[in-house]
Every structure is written in C-alpha cells, then in structure tokens.
Design goal:
By secondary structure, the protein is α+β, with helices and mostly antiparallel strands. The chain has helices at residues 2-46, 76-92, 97-114, 142-159, 162-178, 215-231, 235-252, 277-282, 291-307, 314-330, 361-377, 385-399, 432-445; strands at 74-75, 125-126, 140-141, 190-191, 213-214, 262-263, 289-290, 342-344, 353-356, 456-461, 466-470, 478-485, 488-493, 497-499, 506-512, 521-522.
C-alpha cells in the first residue's frame, strides 16, 4: 500500500510537471510569434521611415501600404507617442541606433516647436513645420500635455538626457499651476494658451466636450505620472499620482466596472440615460461604455499602484478585475473573439445593448496585455483569461494585422473590411498601443526573473557631487540604476554616474528591463 501511494504521488507530480512544461512551452511559442510580429510587422514599417527629416518630428499620415500622404499636420499626442515608442525600442534593441536617434529627433521637435516659450505648456496641434494651428482642439489640453510628459520621461530613461527630464518636470509643474483643481481634485482638460481653464457656458454646443473633466485625460495623466515617477521620485508627483489612482478607481469607475466618460468640474457625471432616444443618440459620444478604455485602465491602475509601492493592493486589483470581467461578460464577441467598441444601458431596455459592434485596433491591443495580467493573477477563474487571450491573439492575427504591408488595420476587418485600404497612420494612430501591448505580452509570456549584478566601486566625488560606479551586467537587457539616499529612492539614470545635490548614506541598485533590481551597493 505504501508503494502504491508513492507511485501515485510520482505520477501526479510527473503529470503536473509535464502540464506546466507544456503550458510554458505554449507561452514561449506565442511570445516568439509576438516578438516577430512586433519587429517585422510593426516597428520595421514605421521606423525610421516615419522620421520627418525635413521639418523635424515624425510624419503623421501613411497610406495602407505605407506611403506618406496628406498635409502631415502634427499633433502633440502622435508626436509624443512616437518619441515614447522609439525610446522603448532603443532599450529593447540597442544595436538599432536609429531608435535612440529617432527618439532624440522627436524630443527636439517637442522642445523647439510644441513647447510654448511665452506661456509654457505644450501646444496641442501644429502644421508640418511646427507652427501652432487651431484645428478642432483647445489651444492647450491636459491630455496632450500628459503624453508629452510620458514621452520625455521615457526618452530620459533610455538616454540619460537630463534636458528631457527637466522639460518633463516643467510640463508637470505647468499642469500643477494651471490645470490642477485643488478643490475637487483631478485636472481640467481644456485651457486657453495662457493656461486658463475653459469654463463651459451657453456658447459651447451641448455635444462638445469643452469644459468638462473626463476619464480619458485622467487615465493618461495617471499613465504619464507613473512613467515620470519611475525616473523622478518627487514627493509632489507621488501625491498627484496617488490622487489620480484613487480618482480613477473610486470616482470615475462606476459600480459595474465601467468608466464614466465626462463630468462637471465637481465630478458630477454627465449622463443622458434619462433623455429621449433621439437626444441620447445626438450625445452618445459623451455617454457610453468604452470597453477598450475599461480594459486599458485596469492595467494602468495596477501599473500605478505598483509604481507607488503599494503592497498587496487588493482593492485596485478587485476593481481592475471587475472592469475586465464586465468587458468579457458584455462586450466580448463569443463567435470570433475581440472586444466590441461601445455599449449602453438604456432605461427602457433590459440589460446591456451593444451600440457599436466594431472592434478598433487599440482596444484589442490593450485587451491582450490586460488579459495576460488577469490570467497570471487568477489562473483558475471562470472567465478563463488565458484562453480568452489566445482567442484574442488569433483574432488579431486573422482580422487586424496586415501581414502584407505591415501594422494593424484601424479596426477588425471582420466588421469593417474597408479598413484594408484605409490609412495605416494618422494623427490618432501610430505605434503606441500596439507596440506597448506586444512588448508587455512578450515580457509576461517569457519572464525574466534574474536580477542584474550589483554595481561595483560606487564612489562619490565630493568636489563635483557626482556619484560614479562600474557598469552592471544582466542576463538579458540592462535598463539603468536607481539611486538611494538613506534607503529612499531619489533618482534614476541609465548611465553609470548621477549628480547628487544632497543626501547621505548613498547607494545604487541596478535594474533590468523586466524590473528586477540588484542588491544595493553602498557608496564608499
């Protein structure tokens, strides 16, 4: 009997081991597919072709087969996202020098053309040469400024160029002075050129967003502050990052796990649910369920919570899971996969109604990343997150990725076949969502858990205030170094030196691309 128990134990152990190996093999195979698609079908068509060598920055518009087209007006969001993508690609592929060169090129355009040298803050829209234009935007917007900060922080992380970090700080302080609401918290979205918030009055059309606070700028301020905090651990920034996390999680997200889109300045929701159907349809852009934003925000909240160092943040994880579950329960195509664009709870109809059954590209990209996060957190959940992830990746390969010309269509061609010949690039479509999703998915599927070696010979040159050390090594890719004073992180650099203005008991920890950190080495 004892022998039988032993053999049974061995069989169970062997089966479990084989299953785990098969599961890991499958994940590595998908990671390999995604890596190839990320490089060959996304990055290569875009870069360095998108770098505007004539006027600076990046070209905005490309045909379905990647020929530049149109007037090439430039928006801060597009330009900043290209800077971010090139910065991250430079970290992943340091041998491809055009990535860091492209990031620097884009940074210079943000600095020289988009930053308002008279009033501060970043313009939202310019012509190809960088001359400010009105377009359909407010002169300054928190949304656009958030992406500038996001890009500048990423470029500093990749390059160590302190002028980029200083401009990111200026952008943060400008928002703090002009857009932050000290009473009701959060940020005003629309501003005049001098930073004065635009107040909604009778002259503004009822269908316009102008003067409202909103979820979209809020979630991307959360995102940009997370990125900036990773390289600049400032106390005020930390306060605002936490403020935005709690605001998005507890105020902007409703009980069903859906983001409310627009608000009055005091965070009273804008709702048309009690209006007539005709009035609702006229205003539906202000009040609907966006499943793409829901699944994206679940990730952004968890990322922010991690950056803040909140241990075992059960509430943020719970709310994030609710957002993803609601999207799967109500906004998922059970036939071929993919998240629908929009839904709504009408007052005179039972349950939820899908109002837009199309599937835009960025929602599917964000869905891939977030489903993998949930699969790791809840491997036995009834929603079968990993199976949904595989179904979504299959959908993406079948209906979204253009395997002939590269990049993703603007929407799934199962619903919108006309996108086969639509623009691949425009001011609202670049590489940001897709590259980030593929990059994050590869990292999750084939994780690196080995930290880099600790820095050696850490020395402070007191005459100059420069802290120096020998370069660390990693099994895959180094990212840079966190600088500590008395055990508290005070900075980051990708270089092997850092200027310390003040502090005592200095130490340095090496960090790799996966976020693994070495033991801290104390300064001699």
């Amino acid at each position: 009997m004892k022998l039988k128990i032993t053999l049974l134990s061995v069989l169970i152990s062997t089966t479990t081991t084989v299953f785990a190996q098969n599961s890991q093999t499958e994940k590595q195979e998908i990671a390999h597919e995604m890596q190839i698609s990320m490089v060959d079908e996304l990055l290569k068509p875009w870069y360095p072709a998108a770098i505007d060598t004539v006027d600076g920055g990046f070209l905005s518009a490309f045909t379905y087969d990647f020929k530049p087209t149109g007037n090439q007006d430039k928006m801060i969001v597009t330009q900043a996202r290209h800077v971010w993508s090139n910065s991250k690609a430079a970290e992943l592929f340091p041998d491809k020098k055009y990535y860091i060169a492209g990031a620097r090129h884009g940074f210079e355009f943000l600095r020289d053309k988009f930053w308002d040298k008279q009033y501060g803050g970043f313009y939202i829209f310019t012509d190809k040469q960088g001359n400010p234009k009105q377009g359909g935007f407010a002169p300054k917007e928190a949304y656009g400024n958030s992406f500038a900060i996001y890009a500048l922080a990423a470029y500093y992380q990749a390059s160590g160029d302190t002028s980029a970090l200083n401009l990111a700080k200026q952008g943060f302080w400008w928002l703090e002075k002009h857009a932050h609401d000290p009473i009701y918290k959060g940020y005003y979205q629309h501003m005049q050129r001098d930073g004065t918030p635009i107040v909604r009055d009778a002259s503004i059309k009822s269908t316009a967003e102008t003067g409202y606070k909103d979820q979209n700028s809020s979630i991307h301020l959360l995102e940009s502050f997370t990125e900036l905090y990773s390289v600049w651990p400032d106390e005020l920034l930390k306060t605002r990052l936490k403020e935005m996390l709690l605001l998005v999680r507890d105020k902007i997200t409703n009980d069903k796990g859906n983001l409310i889109l627009f608000f009055q300045p005091d965070w009273t929701p804008v709702s048309y649910r009690d209006s007539s159907l005709a009035v609702y349809k006229q205003h539906h852009s202000l009040d609907h369920i966006s499943y793409g934003h829901n699944v994206e925000t679940a990730y952004l909240m968890l990322e922010a919570s991690h950056a803040l160092g909140i241990e075992d943040d059960a509430k943020t994880l719970q709310i994030g899971k609710k957002m993803v579950d609601d999207a799967l329960d109500n906004g998922w195509d059970n036939k071929v996969g993919g998240f629908y664009d929009e839904g709504y709870y009408f007052k005179d109809k039972p349950g939820l109604t899908i109002t837009e059954d199309t599937k835009n590209w960025w929602a599917q990209a964000e869905g891939l990343n977030t489903l993998l996060i949930m699969a790791a957190k809840y491997p036995k959940d009834k929603h079968h997150y990993f199976d949904k992830f595989k179904a979504l990746w299959q959908y993406t390969q079948t209906y979204l990725i253009d395997h002939e010309h590269g990049d993703w269509y603007q929407g799934g061609i199962d619903k919108q076949p006309q996108y086969k010949t639509a623009l691949k690039g425009q001011i609202w479509k670049g590489t940001y969502h897709t590259f980030r999703a593929l990059m994050n998915c590869v990292a999750q599927l084939d994780p690196d858990k080995i930290p880099p070696t600790a820095p050696k010979q850490v020395k402070l040159v007191k005459a100059t205030g420069i802290l120096k050390w020998q370069t660390s090594t990693d099994n895959k890719r180094m990212l840079g170094y966190n600088i500590y004073s008395n055990g508290k992180r005070i900075g980051f650099t990708p270089l092997n030196h850092f200027v310390v203005s003040k502090g005592s008991k200095l130490s340095v920890g090496a960090v790799d691309l996966a976020g693994n950190e070495s033991t801290q080495a104390k300064a001699l």
